[in-house]
Each structure stands twice: as C-alpha cells, then as structure tokens.
Amino acid sequence: MTKAIISDGGDILFTSKDKEVLYSFLSKYIPNLTFGAFRTGFKPYRSKSNEVKGYSVDDAVRDYIFENDFNGGIFDEYMISRERMDVLQHKNRVVREGVKETLEELKHRGVYFIVATDASLPGRILRPQLVPLGLSGLVYDIVSSTDVGAQKPNPKFFNRVLRANDLKRDEVFFVGHDEDELRGAYEQGFEVVALNYDPKEDLSFISEDHKVEKFPQILKFVKT
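Request: output the structure for the sequence above.
Response:
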C-alpha cells in the first residue's frame, strides 16, 4: 500500500527559471559566457550553498565570480540587483499542467505528497513559497538538504524523510528528474518514477513503464 510519494519540487511541480535569471544577469557582464558553461561552472558553488551551513547563494555567486577571475565589480552589481532578481525568479515559477488536480486526488486518497529538495533554506521557510502557487495545503511535508545536512541521493537524506514521517521504503515511491537522484534512490531500494527527465541521461536502470511525461501519470503507481 502506498502511503506517500517523495518527490523533487522544482521542475516536477513547477517550472523553475532561477538559473536562467541569474545567467541573464551575468551574461551582461561576462563576454562569451554560454548558458551551458555557466550551468556547469556554477554547479559546485550552488551545491556548496546547499551543503554548508552559513554559506548562502550570494556567497556562491561571489566565489564563482572571483575564483573564475571575472570582474569583481559584477558582484557589487549583483547585490544591487538581488531583490529584483528574486522577484523575477518567483514570477517565472509556473505550476505544471495537472499538478494541482493530481495533488488534490492524492490528498483525497490519503496519500502524503512530500517534497524533498536540495535548497539553502529549511523546509519551514520554503513552505510559504507554495502559497502563491496554490499548492501549500496539498503538500504534506517539505524536507530540505539544509534540514538534513546532506543532499539527495545521500542515504541520510532519504532516511530522514522516512523517519520524520514514520514511513517504510515499501510504502513510498520517489519521483525525480535527475539521473543521480533517481539512481541513488533506486540503489537504496526505492521504487522510482522518472518525470521531466533529460532523454540524454542514462536511465536504463528504470523500466520504460516507470518513465512518464505528465504529472498525473504518477497516480498509476499508487497501490491501494
């Protein structure tokens, strides 16, 4: 019997343009910076902001700029523009088709929907961000890597989610879009469902019937 679904948040429940907004700003000041190069180069700094207490996204941007020998004045401009960028990032979040209706159906069935996210803020701070999206009352719990002190797919993260919600592995399944998170969950014994994934990634360990295109399709994996 399925008691809960553990899922990533961004790019599963809603489209997220956070990286695109930051890239749009930086590309004005850094000649020939491609989005691909930015995404790859910024990733370790962004990961550090999720893993290290007291190391913020702003710290990540600062170190990315200075350690790559970009003009230091860019960071000053970034801090001046920070509030406006936050507004743009939140405005660019759009709930994906069928998400709200599916979450309502899950709640009706008594199945918990738990968001497991790598974020620099704790879950209790992230929850209010679901309010303008109309999803706050439909998400049972939000567990952040900041709460745990580890990122997905670290077993410590998944074990924390299970313990906090009194769940067992065979009572849940994990929905994700990143190969490393899906593989990690799979290797830890979770049933996994791939959604909004990159077809270029190696997801051969997942059966084809567990790769879906639309959020409402996750309902077929709920066991009663």
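The chain has two domains: 4-15+94-221, 18-91.
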